[in-house]
Amino acid sequence: MYKRQADHLSETIDNLDEVVKIQLNSHQQKKALNLEQEIKKVLLSIKAIAEEQKSSFSLDVHPDLFVFCNPAYLDSILLNILTNAIKYRSPDRTPEIRIKAYSGQSETVLEIADNGVGIDLKRHKHDLFGMYKTFHQNKDARGIGLFITKNQIEAQGGRIDVESQVDRGTTFRVYFPGTGN
User: Fold this and answer.
1) Under a CB-based contact definition with an 8 Å cutoff, are residues 169 and 114 in contact?
2) CATH no. of 2-177
3) What is the pLDDT of residues 121-162, one digit of tens each?
C-alpha cells in the first residue's frame, strides 16, 4: 500500500513539474506553424491506431492557415485530442473525426469533432480539464491528458472549450490568439 501511494505521489509530482515547465516556457520557441501540415503530421503518426479502429477523418483547413505556437505543444495538443477521439469511440459506430479550422477577427479556431461516446457535461463540465479526472470506464484513462492540453493551450495565450452529448460525440474548440493568415 505504501509503495502504491509513493508511486502515485511521484506521478503527481512529475505531472505538476510538467505544468510548471509549460508555464515557464510559455513564451519560448513559438513559431508560425502551418496548421494543415501540422495536423497531417499528427494524423500520419497515429495512422496505425486509426486504421485498427477503422477511423475516418475529414480535414477542412485552408493550406495557408498558420498559428503562432510552440511546435511541441501544438503536436501534443493535436495528438491528445485526436487520440482521445479514437479512444472514446462508440462501440455502435465507426469513428468519424472532423477537423476544421478558420480565422476570426482576433483568433484562429481549430475544431475537432467526433461521433464517440460523448461526455455528460451536466455532471462533468467543471471537472473536465482537472488533474486525474476521468469520465469513462476506459482502463487506459489517467485523467492527465486534457489537464496538460489545457495548460499548453493557455501557455500560448489561447483557450479551449467543449460541446458534448452522451452517445452523440464531442467537439473541442481550440482558440489560438491572433489571426492565422
Assistant:
1) yes
2) 3.30.565.10
3) 686 566 666 554 444 454 554 557 888 899 899 988 999 999
CA distance 84 to 177: 24
Single-letter code of the amino acid located at 180: G
- Phi, then psi, of 174 in degrees rounded to 5: -110, 125
Sign of the CA dihedral with 72 first, then 157, 146, and 130 last: positive
Residue type, 162: V
> Residue 170 and residue 162: Cα distance in Å, rounded?
7
- Whole-Å CA distances, 104 to 60, 175, 177, 178: 15, 10, 10, 9
Residue 61 carries which DSSP code? Answer: -
- pTM of the entire predicted model: 0.79
Calculate the CA dihedral of residues 154, 156, 158, 163 and round it to 10 degrees: -60
User: Quick one: CA dihedral 92, 138, 141, 51, positive or negative?
Assistant: negative
Cβ pair 60, 112 in contact under 8 A = no
Q: Residue 14 contacts by C-beta under 8 Å, 6 or more apart in sequence?
A: none
